[in-house]
Design goal:
Elements (H helix, E strand, L loop, with lengths): L13 H14 L2 H12 L12 H7 L6 E5 L5 H8 L3 E6 L2 H14 L4 E4 L11 E7 L5 H12 L2 E12 L20 H7 L4 E14 L3 E13 L1
Parallel strand pairs: 1-2, 1-4, 2-3, 4-5
Antiparallel strand pairs: 5-7, 6-7
Helix pairs in contact: 2-5, 4-5, 6-7
This protein binds S-adenosylmethionine.
């Protein structure tokens, strides 16, 4: 199957975009998406930059020590930041190339991160965490709830889940993220996925994104913090 980039940052003609959207709804499959991430991460450039996500940094300030898990961590910017703050850091992503980039960044900063190549709905580990972060890991509806619930198993008592993802409104923007509504999230979906946890924060926001070449400009996001 031909591989087409579904994460366009610039518009293009409406009819073509609609054709592409339908193409992907019909053909989305795991391997294709995984291959796309590997392809994107095979460049020298860190496509989401090397600075950690602002909301993640803010939430990490609430902890003085502990174990952090980063889900869908890609090139490692958040993991390396947390390790530099003295936290124990574990990360996973299904992209092998993401892991290689993260390793490179960690070596540059002389920090240790424990990084697994694994898919979110199958990830298992014999360890529990004080904070689990999901930063722009967008999953298809067929696995989203399952993968989110899977992560909850790895929270320590009192632990928290920190999330920044694009809302469905992001489909109108050109600042990055999936172009398919199915891969964009709603507040209701996250509320349901993390049912049983305490909602500390769950809000939709318009923010100015500046995270590497692929996340630039006005963006519609959901920020959430859930605790056990
Ligand atoms: C937009 S990038 C964000 C990377 C990183 N969290 C950051 O903020 O820089 C989304 C990441 O989610 C990963 N991802 C997508 N679906 C996944 C899945 N089912 N299991 C594991 N990782 C996944 C991709 O490989 C990619 O690295």
């Amino acid at each position: 199957m031909q591989i087409v980039n579904i994460f366009t940052t610039k518009g293009g003609n409406q009819a073509n975009n609609e054709d592409l959207r339908l193409f992907f709804i019909q053909n989305l499959n795991y391997n294709t998406m995984q291959e796309q991430w590997d392809q994107r991460y095979s460049s020298e450039e860190f496509i989401y930059g090397i600075q950690a996500n602002e909301f993640f940094k803010e939430q990490l300030n609430n902890l003085t020590e502990g174990e952090i898990l980063l889900a869908g961590e890609g090139e490692g910017r958040n993991a390396v930041y947390a390790a530099l703050q003295g936290f124990g850091v574990t990360a996973f992503d299904y992209s092998e190339q993401g892991k290689l980039k993260a390793r490179k960044l960690a070596n540059k900063h002389k920090v240790e991160i424990d990084y697994y190549v694994a898919s979110a709905e199958e990830f298992t580990i014999e360890k529990k965490f004080d904070l689990i972060a999901i930063v722009y890991m967008h999953l298809p509806p067929s696995i989203r709830a399952l993968a989110h619930k899977n992560l909850v198993k790895y929270l320590k008592p009192g632990g928290m889940i920190v999330i920044e993802v694009f809302s469905k409104k992001q489909v109108e923007n050109t600042s990055g993220g999936p172009k398919s509504l199915d891969l964009l999230y709603s507040v209701e979906e996250l509320k349901s996925d993390f049912e049983g946890l305490k909602i500390e924060l769950l809000e939709q926001k318009e923010i100015e994104l500046s995270e590497g070449p692929l996340h630039q400009g006005r963006a519609n996001v959901i920020r959430a913090v859930f605790t056990v």
